[in-house]
Amino acid sequence: MGNRSQPSGEHVTISYAGFNRPWASWIAHQLRARGLEATTVRWDPRVDVPFESEFGGLLAAEGRILLVLDNWYFKLGPIPEEDWQRVLSDMVPPHADRFAAVTVATQEVPASVDLLSPVDLHDLDEHEAVRRLLRRLSIDPAQPAVPLPTDAPRFPNEPPEVLDIPRRNRRFTGRDAELDRIHTLLTGAGSQEPVTTRLVLYGGTGTGKTQMAAEYAHRFGNDYDVVWWIDATHRANARERLAALAPRLGLPVGERIGERIRAVQDALRSDERSRRRLLVFDGADDALQLADLLPEDGHGHVLLTSTTRDWSAVPGIREIGIRSFSRVESVAFVRRRAPRVTPGEADALASAVQDLPLLLAQTAAWLDANDLPVREYIQQLQDTPKSAQIQTEATYPKGFHTAWSITLGTLRERHPKAAMLLNLLAFFSPNEIPVRLLTEVHYKDLHDDLDELVRDPRAWHLALRRLSEYTAVRLDYQQELAENPVVEQVLMHRLYHRFLREELPPAERRLYTEMACQVLISADPRRPADTRDWSRYARLIPHLEFAGAFDSSRPAVQELVLNCVEYLRVRGEYRSGLKLCDEVLARWQRSLDPSHGALLSLHHKRGNILRQAGRYHEAEQLGRTVVRRLTADKPADHPDLLRAKDGLGSTLLALGQFTQARELFTEAAARFAEQFGTEAPQTLAARHNLGLALMLLGRYAEAREIHREVLQIRQRRLRSRHYLTLHSGAVYARLIRLMGDYPEAASRLEQIVRTLRQISDERHPQSISADHQLGMCRRRAGDYDEARDRLSSAAFRAAQVLGPQHPETLVAEADYATFLREHGELGTAMKYAESVAERYARLLGRDHPYSIGTRGNVGMALGHAGDRDASLRHAESAHREMTAAVGPDHPWALGCALNLSAARSRANDVEGAHEISHDTLVRAGRALGGAHPLTLSAKMALADDLRALGRVRQAAGFEEDAVRRLGDSLGPEHPHTRDAQRRVRPYWDFEPQPL
After folding, report:
1. CA pair distance 367, 373, nearest whole angstrom
2. Is-contact 102 27, C-beta < 8 A?
3. Is the pLDDT at 923 greater than 90, yes or no?
4. Deepest of 203, 240, 251, 318, by most Cβ within 10 A of its Cβ?
5. Can you list the alpha helix ranges (DSSP code H) found in 310-356?
6. DSSP letters of 792-852?
7. Three-state DSSP state, 199
């Protein structure tokens, strides 16, 4: 192996199994970079052709032939070792100058391979692998590489930066044409067909779609920087997995799933290298539930598997039909899985199961573990009586039930405890059976035999091994424990999962249902609001229905279900939460009394989710129905009825029905206090809500007093850093600001913001809200630089964390828009203002005070932009509609009146302006007091109108009083005081209040 200098024009043909494409691509690049011509040729020797002919065909290739050898060719491959020995001994020596080899095998290779003088590249770093490769081809490793115009393939021993996919199926067989077509369609490499970045593999159950997608991710994974697998059988699972990608990408995110998904989608949209990212959505049968999770077309590669044709209606999706194995592939697969089976027997078996990969895997595994003559086994499959068949797809072979029955019978006979374990596993979700939870159950929670099994580590792992050998299940190990691997979860094909459940008699089914529910109960942290337990709840939810939890009458199981609903609510997964609620309601309404505590609690939680999801009218309808039903069945002071009234009041508050909400909160607070005391949590919650209602009714002084009392009690009963205490403190500070005391409000909010920074991160919704409120204080106090920073940051974070439609986001963006308008950024201000007004109208209706007020803000922006006519129209309608919605003495109506007087003044309607400014001053003084900033603004507006009417002396009196009071309360240098001194006409911005 003497070294040569830079070769010139020499050609090397790199022969590889499809399995080893990453190695072939990397080797080709290394050779081309050193001046050689390199061609890669996939070589998968057929089992129906003499091996001499297959190997001899390699000699037709151009130049030297470099074989990339792996275990696939040997112990895991279809060619017997003796064939390799014979053929290599006969054919390599006469052509020794043409053959060379590298090996990437993880197990020992046959001795006959020594004739090829292979160099081992497995487990090396890239530098050493290059050195060995070049020396094997007699190329000087010191010769510098020449930069090539294309990106270098990643070294196969160095996986993509972010990689999370199923373990590779080392027995994967065939499908090379389909895999190459997938790659061609996604990348456009060497094809004239249009490139598509979103591709769905469609086919019937058991055709191997999942295995093909997994093999694509492994075979072509080195072309990507990110390869991420998503279980898409349920929307909630898919969202969890997509959200888990955010921290792996290094994105600054919090715990909310929606925020993480938006961050991932934004990253894919903005990253120029997004095409080097592959997302695989496995089991994506429901396009309607999953389409919004896919990255935008052209931003990353997306591969889906599905048994339905639903995706064909989604724009930008292309479909590839996946069928059963070809007969050659079937025979090769069977002989690799069960070496004792002859080619003729493998052909007959493939015919009996119609080349279906799932059934071939099951039958071949059984034949490998048992000595029954193959022909006899095949005859049993073909003799399946109709009475033994279960309903499945029309294309399924009739013998599949017999094949699985034989397997199950053998398992029960030889390994009865493993068979019991298999039955129990069928009562969890087939895609992620949580076997580790079984080892964590309490003593005697399981049947005696299973209890013994899970407490004996050796017997436990042996039983799992038996299931892997005998049945259609796959073991996934915890990857970080390489020295002593632990089975993390078991995966079972959905059809086999259904077969096991339907095969059990009713009595046994009830037994396993009880055990499965007990496993889930033992795993329930019982803290759905604690972020530390969110990952546990995410893992429990997929198993609830399979375990029979929805039909259980046990209180502990019902509590588990309710905790899972609550987890989805507090995490902001409203769509999944409502879906779970509806599934449970369908069962509980049939089996439980309408006044049953669990059912009432479910209604309450569903109402909360509807309200938080912005579906207020549905929440109102549900709330009124529950209140009406409980009013007929329960006494007036029953806690369930009071809780229902309190929940309905919260919905009415969001709908703008503030007076009705106040009445409900007043009753609930009083009756809770009578039963549980004035400092009980229920009482405090109802009083807190009552304070919100009074605030929204414009009764700021009463609201402030209630929130002061609630805050003091919570400071005394809870720790000062408790989230409820901090929330009460933020609302109290807001009311102080609304009453015009900006310094005290800012001081309180500064402390709250500091505390929240210490106990959570800046992306927590409570932190965002507190930052926003502090920004408003800074704005009113005249500290515009800090106000800008806080308001813009809060608006951005709210949209990212909570989503653009969330009420808190609308509040933050509405206030940021008015700040921008006030400081001359009219284009951006108008964009925000119009968008917020449109979203409020869609969310709450055009007649809601928030919709009216934000339309009024649009009118203010139009006025600043010089469109006085449009501004006047907006001001007239805002005043008229707001007065109708909340009454003429409400601060919001008074603020709209202040703006209308200014709009009339600009339109030279002096009398009209004076009429309304005078009325506004009278009403504001009565409602808010003479020193309130809005009252003083009304006084300055009236002075301006009086001057315009020539009543200068009277105007001066009002002006002097207003300037003096503003100076006393805000200081002589405050912007509002200086504006009053310069006779700048005051205006009012509508601030939608967080609920």
Report:
1. 8
2. yes
3. yes
4. 240
5. 327-337, 343-352
6. HHHHHHHHHHH-TTSHHHHHHHHHHHHHHHHTT-HHHHHHHHHHHHHHHHHHH-TTSHHHH
7. strand
